[in-house]
Amino acid sequence: MSIQTKGQQKYYDFIEERVKKLRTGMIVWGSLLAVALIGMFSDVLLAIILAAVGAALAILNLKSQKALNEKLNVVEDREEFFRQLASSDLLEFKAARLIIMKDYLLQMKEDVFIYPFSEMEKVEVGIQGKVGKTLFLTDRQGARHEIMSCMKDDGKQEEFDKVYGALIERVGKN
After folding, report:
1. How far apart, in whole angstroms, are the C-alpha atoms of residue 94 and residue 79?
2. Burial grade of 27 (CB within 10 A; 0-12, 13-18, 19 or more)
3. How crowded is the C-beta side of 147, counted as CA atoms within 13 Å?
4. pLDDT tens digit string along 88-107?
5. DSSP string computed for 56-83
6. How far lies 157's CA from each of 96, 131, 148, 152, 163, in Å?
7. How far apart are CA 38 and CA 106, in angstroms?
């Protein structure tokens, strides 16, 4: 990714953890292939096994890299997306790993998720017994996307309420 603007830098910083995992995967499969090449001189069967494992990991890693690059495909106007990421009025919740912009929600869990508010139908809160609640965005197809959870005594209630309020403001329904 060629970084040219402040918004692109913010996006890259946000996805940096995921990128590091992909780079580590690349180092692993590259190392396996190198060891397989060296091993061909002493144990051909072991070299073939290492090469097969390395090739399989390479394919998985390349697919993951492509999927990460395609995350931005949900964005209609990338220039505007990056401009919003550089805007001073965005809301960033580092503990929840969320960025709420004018038109998008950017979330990092085990992967990166970009939710355009134009495709969201409503904001919902699910109650988990007497001790917690979960915040969802529901899209026009009815799919629910978990945004964050909080338990009664985990200290996240204030942040949960701020995220909820910001999403209600942008999506407009609950």
Report:
1. 24
2. exposed
3. 29
4. 889 999 888 999 999 999 99
5. HHHHHHHHHHHHHHHGGGG-S-HHHHHH
6. 12, 11, 11, 7, 10
7. 44
User: Residue 39 — pLDDT band, cuts 50, 70, 90?
Assistant: confident
By the 10 Å C-beta count (0-12 exposed, 13-18 middle, 19+ buried), 22 is classed as middle
Give the CA angle between residues 138, 134, 136 to the nearest 5°: 10
Q: Which two tokens stand for residue 104?
A: 């998008």
| HSE (side-chain half, CA atoms, 13 Å) at 40 | 9
CA triplet 79, 163, 158: central angle to 5 degrees? Answer: 145
Q: Which helix (H) or strand (E) holds 127?
A: strand 120-128
Tell me the per-residue pLDDT of 142-165, one tens digit each, with 9 for 90 and over: 999 999 988 877 777 889 989 999
The pTM of the full predicted model, rounded to 2 decimals, is 0.78
Q: How many residues does the chain have?
A: 174
